[in-house]
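In this supplementary section we document a worked example of the pipeline. Step one takes a protein sequence of length 241 as its only input; no multiple sequence alignment statistics are reported here. Step two produces a three-dimensional model, which step three serialises into structure tokens for compact storage. The input and output of this example are shown verbatim.
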Amino acid sequence: MTAHLQQRGDVAVLVPAAGAGVRLGPGAPKALRLLGGIPLLVHAVRRLAGAPSVAVIVVAAPPDDVDAVRDLLAPAVAGLLLIVVPGGGDRQASVAAALAAVPAGPQIVLVHDAARALTPADLVESVAAAVRAGAEAVIPVLPVVDTIKTVDADETVLATVDRSTLRAVQTPQGFRRDVLAAAHVAAADPHTDDAGLVEKLGVPVVCVPGSERALKITRPFDLVIAEHLLGTEPSPRTLLP
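The serialised model returned by step three reads:
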């Protein structure tokens, strides 16, 4: 297995995909909802597999669907090591379960949301390259373009926030493996992303430019946007390694 990892790349990607996706409406777990007739998770993993640095993909799947998810993803990861484990009760627990399953070898670990199904491979490479260059934690970001206001419990505006210092955070987020492992061990409270856990350790988090295509599919209208973006891509077949 070591020789295989050296040939293919030096990065392991963790994909927490066990969430229900309540905001997307009733139906299958969010990662298994269809986009263009293909589950979001397949789209996401196919693009991860198109990044030359990626050697291992570990998916934390709905516990009742581990075997089905493994079979579903097998055609999309030719040349890669695919590991599917049962996910936990929340995103943080799923990431921890996936991290524990990473084999010896990769010291760069990325965490990627299956809901960001159209994230391009070059963004994966950009994040991995920043960690490889010496950063301990890396996040892709976009400038915030909307005016942001803080409000009280009655929805009365308290202040307008200076958006020049704000960034919208995407995935994949990249980490030195030992840093991410230490952050999860030290975690005392739930966080919405792994960079938040790492920040608690006092580790600097570096930003790299994100991608408009890495939108998070959370609500039904997001699927409409994603369908449009999907229609502007080359044939999915060309995205496979």
